[in-house]
Amino acid sequence: MRIVSATLAALLLLTGVAHATPSRGVTAKILAQWTAGDRDYVVREITVDPGGSTGWHHHDGTLYAVVKKGVLTRTMSDCTTNFVHHRGDTLIEEPAHVHIGRNLGTEPMVLEVLYVNPAGTPLSRDEPNPGCSFE
Known about the structure:
5-stranded antiparallel beta sheet; disordered N terminus; RmlC-like_jellyroll; Cupin
């Protein structure tokens, strides 16, 4: 039994533990919220400072957003950055897609967001960096 315990402890130390990546330079304020049926609806204004990021995360529901100011760069869990959204652009984030939003610009980036989540779930769930080199 001691050998099994020692082996397990060594494996845990060698492999490390994945930790969520915190947001940086992000502020948010709720503009409206309500529940209808089995869904929570929340409207938020999110501001990301230059050089800031949301941290890696996913949503349990669908998110609809419009960029009010600045530029949002989104990177997916496969480390591809195929999504760059400018002022006036809209976007939809589907449930369970791990991603990070970053402000690579020189001015604050502002999003207005509608979250449509299963009732009682958080707006987002933190995730560890999937191995992308910039975070």
